[in-house]
UniProtKB/TrEMBL annotation:
GO terms for molecular function: acetoacetyl-CoA reductase activity. This is Acetoacetyl-CoA reductase. Its EC number is 1.1.1.36. Belongs to the short-chain dehydrogenases/reductases (SDR) family. It holds the Pfam family adh_short. Residues 6-186 form the Ketoreductase domain.
Length: 248
């Protein structure tokens, strides 16, 4: 049975930033669908959300590197909860190493998961949004797509590409009630940054003007702002949230 709550699909919803986006959007009254990669982790994660009182969070196992799988998942979500009106592309991975050592697989895996996924999800929801004359798409990019990062040619390229997608799709949908924006977080306190060697990580933290990492909650509240129905004049934009580390 479908409810009347607007439906928000958050890819990477069980991750460090994604979890907080899901909970924030659920508090705002959305029916949240969290995308995941690891089914066992996702099931436990969902149980935790329910025990924390979030009955309006569900999960979807769409394989975001496959258009077919995304289309199938969107159909299932539509049948169970209603049409998706908010899409947040938050799924992302790192495979950091310098160009001289990077394998083609490390390049391709990051491009598929961090960029092609955004094509697959947007392509899967866009016709419903066009039919409804309403939609909000928020692409979670990165400071490293804005400035480049030593050891991340794959990640920086994918994240920069994401904003190209944002700007092009924003133009295609501007007269149709749909906004498409990019949010570029800096270094946020999640498991992802714990993979960086400690010495390098500490040097990065020192280089952030506010002298700390960001919190997932600081990203989530900005996602909710961009996804709000009153934010209709913001489209094709990039919002940097990085403690002043990069001022583009
Ligand atoms: N600028 C210039 N030189 C640098 C450098 C930098 N930022 N970082 C390292 N180097 C130098 C080292 O001093 C060393 O120099 P020497 O060879 O002269 O001694 C050399 O580069 C090391 O090169 P290697 O190819 O041997 O690299 P490595 O295998 O030791 O490690 C790395 C390279 C894995 C990329 C490591 O530096 C690293 O993890 N860096 C951090 C990458 C990073 O910031 N990732 C972000 C992850 S979080 C995220 O992505 C979320 C988000 O959106 C922000």
């Amino acid at each position: 049975m479908t409810s009347t709550a607007p439906v928000a699909w958050i890819t990477g919803g069980t991750g460090g930033i994604g979890s907080e986006i899901c909970r924030f959007m659920a508090k705002e009254g959305y029916q949240v669908i969290a995308g995941y990669n690891n089914p066992e982790k996702a099931q436990k994660w969902l149980e935790q959300q329910k025990s924390d009182g979030f009955d309006n969070i569900d999960i979807s196992g769409a394989k975001i590197t496959s258009l077919e799988s995304c289309e199938e998942a969107v159909k299932e979500i539509r049948d169970k909860h209603g049409k998706i009106s908010v899409l947040v592309n938050c799924a992302g991975i790192t495979r950091d190493t310098t160009m001289k050592k990077m394998t083609f697989e490390q390049w391709q895996e990051v491009l598929d998961t961090n960029l092609t996924s955004a094509f697959n999800t947007c392509r899967s929801v866009i016709n419903d949004m066009l039919d409804d004359g309403y939609g909000r798409i928020v692409n979670i990019s990165s400071i490293n797509g804005r400035k480049g990062q030593f050891g991340q040619v794959n990640y920086s390229a994918a994240k920069a590409g994401m904003h190209g997608l944002t700007m092009a799709l924003a133009q295609e949908t501007a007269t149709k009630g749909i906004t498409v924006n990019t949010l570029s977080p800096g270094y946020i306190a999640t498991d992802m940054i714990m993979k960086i060697p400690e010495k390098v990580r500490e040097a990065i933290r020192e280089s952030i003007p506010v002298k700390r990492y960001g919190t997932p909650e600081e990203i989530a509240r900005a996602v909710a702002f961009l996804a709000h129905k009153e934010s209709g004049f913001i489209t094709g934009a990039n919002l940097d949230i990085n403690g002043g580390q990069f001022m583009g």
